[in-house]
Amino acid sequence: MKTTHRIFALCLAAGLPMTALAEEPVDPALYEAAYSEDGRYFNADDIPTYNITEDGTVDWLTFSGFRRYHAECHVCHGPDGEGSTYAPAVKNAAVTLGYEGFFDVVVNGRQNGNSVMPHFGENRNVMCYLDDIYVYLKARGTDALPRGRPAKKEAKSDAIREDENACMG
Q1: d(Cα 142, Cα 47) in Å, to the nearest integer?
Q2: Does the pLDDT of residue 142 top 50, yes or no?
Q3: What are the Basic and acidic residues biased-composition ranges (predicted)?
Q4: Mean pLDDT, range 78-86, rounded to an integer
Q5: Cα distance between residue 73 and residue 114, in whole Å
Q6: Quick check: 91 and 139 in contact, CB under 8 A?
């Protein structure tokens, strides 16, 4: 697990407050995976990203992100990040906000007029899988992944399983 991701997980596990992070601009040329490490894919700037093969097989984090998004986020933001009458579409959030900006909004929440995004910084069901949700929404926001449950997925790596168990306690 990359250092940034470990810091988020350790702060959460230790009950430390999460601080706001600066937004980072996202270059569309950097969406594709440059390398993988223990079943996770990263772009050239070490930012988590998706990996979808020609036959439609998605990496584990993208598949897990689909599941986690639909367990925690779709109630407000609608299926597949498309929005609802209650909350806006978020399928482009991972693209427009960038990694740190996305983390900041989810961890700390945000208010825009009468619209309120609650903070999830202490919710392990979100925080332990925030990279997964980010990667899934990034794939949706770039139209690399169509609506619906991905039909094929890579196996969950031992490293991802260990990180998940450590974060969830």
Answers
A1: 15
A2: yes
A3: 151-169
A4: 84
A5: 19
A6: no
State residue 10's pLDDT score: 46
Q: Hey, what amino acid is at 24?
A: E
Question: The domain containing residue 37 runs over which residues?
Answer: 3-168
- From residue 72, alpha-carbon distances to 92, 115, 130, 167 in Å are 17, 18, 11, 17
Place of tokens 């689909």: 66
CA distance 23 to 112: 17
What pLDDT shows up at residue 88? Answer: 84
Question: Above 80 in pLDDT, residue 150?
Answer: yes
Give CA separation, 63 vs 19, 42, 86, 100, in Å.
Answer: 28, 16, 25, 21
Prediction pTM value: 0.82
Q: Beta strand pairing status for 152-153 and 57-58? A: parallel
Task: For residue 88, give the 3-state DSSP assignment.
Answer: coil
**Total Cβ atoms within 10 A of residue 167:** 20
CA-based torsion, 149, 154, 105, 11: positive or negative: positive
Which two three-digit tokens encode residue 87?
A: 């909350």
Amino acid at 9: A
Total domains, the chain: 1
